[in-house]
Design goal:
Elements (H helix, E strand, L loop, with lengths): L1 E10 L2 E11 L4 E5 L6 H8 L7 E6 L2 E2 L8 H6 L1 E5 L10 H10 L5 H14 L15 H13 L5 E5 L7 H16 L3 E5 L3 H7 L2 E6 L2 E5 L3
Helix pairs in contact: 3-4, 3-5, 4-5
Length: 220
């Protein structure tokens, strides 16, 4: 489903990832670990074609970094849900409208929008908060809204970049359970995190990024 073949990327002539080979299968749960600045976020950005490799090829389903046209990138991104540590919610819109926004911009029909938003809010346990504004929510609830927005387009993979970085341990574990539930329904999850306790409880494969390369490890 996702394939890195001999991928290298540089920023200002400084290597970040070097000759990376990585395959992610449909429905996998992958934890990306490594020290700050080693390239975890860059690897995720390569998957949704926010950046492109200087060498090698990234393939996501039928799309390839070598061949994809600019107009095709939005289509690819509908297949990829992305969650960041900073919530990036629209402060002037309630929970329902924050999630619906992701569908409005892709031209989904109005009656379909309502069905999808209500379904995904139920999935993340926020049906009762649909009319609340972001400032009325806890940090964990705000992050659940972000998960709902990332999932409403029914992506094949969810990329989560330090999603629990600002949350207390119990809330972080709640979000891990949410990610595992999402994964159990068939969506692949790629979790980049410094939270080693989270990784120990995540299951799936653990991929370490170090010195520009990636290595699968058994335990952490």
């Amino acid at each position: 489903m996702i394939r890195f073949e001999n991928v290298s990327i540089y920023f200002d002539h400084v290597p970040v990832l070097l000759d990376v080979n990585l395959h992610i299968k449909p429905g996998e749960f992958i934890s990306l670990v490594g020290e700050s600045g080693v390239g975890k976020t860059t690897l995720l950005r390569l998957i949704y074609f926010d950046v492109f490799p200087n060498k090698g090829t990234v393939s996501v389903t039928e799309y390839s970094s070598e061949k994809i046209k600019k107009r095709e990138i939005p289509k690819l991104r509908r297949k990829v849900g992305v969650v960041f540590q900073d919530f990036k919610l629209l402060e002037d819109r309630n929970v329902y409208d924050n999630v619906a926004f992701a569908l409005h911009v892709t031209g989904v029909k109005k009656n379909e929008i309502g069905k999808r938003v209500l379904r995904v809010l139920a999935d993340v346990g926020l049906s009762h908060k649909r009319d609340n504004m972001p400032e009325e929510l806890s940090g964990g609830e705000q992050q659940r809204v972000v998960f709902a927005r990332a999932l409403v387009n029914e992506p094949i993979v969810l990329l989560a970049d330090e999603p629990t970085g600002n949350l207390d341990p119990p809330t972080a574990m709640d979000l891990l359970q949410l990610m595992k539930t999402i994964n159990s329904r068939g969506t692949a999850v790629v979790l980049a995190t410094h939270n080693y306790e989270l990784v120990r409880n995540a299951g799936g494969r653990i991929i370490q990024i170090k010195d520009g390369g990636v290595t699968e490890i058994e335990n952490i």
